[in-house]
């Protein structure tokens, strides 16, 4: 963890096109900012999962290996999905005359979580920025600006549409037999209490490496992929079995009833009971 660190820029922000305000990483606690934050923010999820709610946007899930860009002044709140599990969130607050152009280039990625196929290098850049500021405080504002720009440029490259630019790690776009085997395993067992640890181990990957490969190839996290399968199956079960109990459906999908109801409502906008009444 990197404790919250304020960058003492000594009012020299006008000398550089980009500058950091604060940086760090921690076990994120619930935050509610109805008036938004004064600076732009980049969030990186290293462990656990959490939910962002921003004005005018649907609830967004941020899981390991994903990034989230939040512009200044946007009303928002965020919190861990499961407080007992924890949610390690890295962050950089930044601003400067060049920030508007970069945010514009990110386009639809703003306020929308997206996977980072090369997450470790980006996390290392955040850590490096933290140590630079910690050691030099406001005396390294030129180098700090360079590193903020480096992080954002890295983000732009990751956010670029597939095929638009040549990427360093083009291998992730190639067919992957192990990943195909993992997807087949998920489809065969998503109705059970499926652990990603077991899926990753079955195809010879660490959980983190499997997660990042999956996001790079499918555009969603393994957790979200499994959840989508379960929610579609839930609708099928409700349609096929008139009067089937919600608890029974949750059990058949390997989910706790309360969690199932919450995820069903998040996916379809209403509880299973309300959906059943309406159809």
TrEMBL record:
Keywords: DNA-binding, Transcription, Transcription regulation
Protein name as annotated: AraC family transcriptional regulator
Pfam family, one: AraC_binding
Classification via InterPro entries: AraC-bd (IPR003313), AraC_XylS_family_regulators (IPR050204), Homeodomain-like_sf (IPR009057), HTH-like (IPR037923), HTH_AraC (IPR018060)
PANTHER family xrefs: ARAC SUBFAMILY (PTHR46796:SF6), HTH-TYPE TRANSCRIPTIONAL ACTIVATOR RHAS-RELATED (PTHR46796)
All copies of domain HTH araC/xylS-type, residue ranges: 180-278
Organism: Cohnella yongneupensis
């Amino acid at each position: 963890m990197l404790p919250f660190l304020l960058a003492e820029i000594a009012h020299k922000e006008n000398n550089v096109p980009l500058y950091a305000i604060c940086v760090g990483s921690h076990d994120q606690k619930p935050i509610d900012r109805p008036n938004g934050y004064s600076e732009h923010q980049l969030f990186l999820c290293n462990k656990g999962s959490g939910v962002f709610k921003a004005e005018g946007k649907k609830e967004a899930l941020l899981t390991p290996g994903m990034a989230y860009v939040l512009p200044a002044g946007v009303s928002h709140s965020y919190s861990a999905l499961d407080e007992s599990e924890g949610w390690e969130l890295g962050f950089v607050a930044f601003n400067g005359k060049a920030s508007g152009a970069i945010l514009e280039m990110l386009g639809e990625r703003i306020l929308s979580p997206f996977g980072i196929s090369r997450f470790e290098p980006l996390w290392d850049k955040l850590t490096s920025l933290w140590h630079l500021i910690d050691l030099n405080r406001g005396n390294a504002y030129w180098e700090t600006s360079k590193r903020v720009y480096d992080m954002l440029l890295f983000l732009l490259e990751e956010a670029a549409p597939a095929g638009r630019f040549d990427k360093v790690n083009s291998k992730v776009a190639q067919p992957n037999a192990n990943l195909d085997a993992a997807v087949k395993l998920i489809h065969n067992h998503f109705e059970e209490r499926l652990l990603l640890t077991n899926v990753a181990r079955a195809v010879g990957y660490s959980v983190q490496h499997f997660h990042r490969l999956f996001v790079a190839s499918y555009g969603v996290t393994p957790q979200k992929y499994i959840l989508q399968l379960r929610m579609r199956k839930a609708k099928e079960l409700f349609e096929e079995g008139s009067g089937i109990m919600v608890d029974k459906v949750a059990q058949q999908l390997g989910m706790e009833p309360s969690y199932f109801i919450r995820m069903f409502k998040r996916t379809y906008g209403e509880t299973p009971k309300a959906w059943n009444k309406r159809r």
